Fold this sequence. Notes:
alpha/beta; Helix Hairpins; single chain; 6-stranded mixed barrel
Amino acid sequence: MKKKTFGFVATAILGVNILLPVFAHAESLNELDKKETAITRQSDKISGELQLALNDVNEKYQEVNDIRTKISQNEATLAKTKTEIVETEQKIDERKSAIAERMKEVQVSGMTDRSINALLESKDLGEFLNRAFAMSVIQNAEKTKVASLGEAKDRLTELKATQEKTQAQLKQDSQNLEAESTKLDVKMANLKQELAENKTSLEKISQAKEVETAREAAEKAQQEQAAKEEKAAKAAQAEAAKKAEAEAKAQAEKTVASTKAQNSQSSPASSAVQSTQPAESSSTTNQQSTQPAEQPKPETPKPAEPSTPTTSGKTMQMQSTAYSCAESVNTFFTAMGIDLRQNPQVVAVDPSVIPLGSMVEVSGYGIAIAGDTGGAIKGNIIDCHFSTVEQCIQWGRRSVTVTVIS
């Protein structure tokens, strides 16, 4: 009976020691859930910011291309204006040379006297006026030609100055846009780094949760086993108590019979009855010192650190296909952990051709992140992501020019 009592007490102590760590570690698992939720929200926010930055990059690159086109057009117009100025200056010089030659001939040949004689030989005043007007018209025509050429030269010179000023402003705007594009590139790189770090943190938390869940399951199994043993111990104790009661009752009946037979020996018989009570308290004290051995906690494996993406700045011709996270066979997350619902501007590439994490420009698609891979994406094949299946069908399969932006 002492052995059964000892087993019950030991089981009770073991149950208490197992139950307390469960409550203690439940709070730790709750903290892991909170951290995971916070990091997931932060990752969603970063994905949104990354998509906005990607849109800004596309807009800036488009503006840069437009300004470069305007610069080329203005350079062509400016070159044409310079050519026209040179031609006009040549015409002015030729006209001045012609006038000078005529003046020289007039002085040498005495043409002035002939003009005066022509006027004096007029039959009447009307003919005189007509001849004088004709001579004036001829002289004014020469002056007008020279003046018009000079005005044309002045207009062309002003146009040249305006075009040069416009050209300088366009180049300044182009430099400003390129500087803004560089800042956006740096911002995107930082956002991608934060996203990769959050992915690593989520992987660590997930592994820690798995370890903690396994530990809780083991402790729960131990607790259930302890409860079963405790129940069995209680049943054994009840059976022992029942048996002891029956033995005590039989002894009491025997004592009563003895008392009737020997009335003079009632006190010793009573003492004999009292001595039959079991001594249980001495064994109980010795069992409380038993403590269950603590189980070693498994270490959380450390995930591999993500590699830093690099870019090459090269341009290549590739075959392009299309896919969408809206298709049932695809997930919402890429190989880099990018949420395609938040950041749809992503392409899948062969990492041996285009490194993961690179920013690429695909003709007809725009600037995107090389953030995914695929079993069929090998060599010079690129898979462009779209938000809907209809967009994928419209894209189809086509040849594209891919530039890895450095």
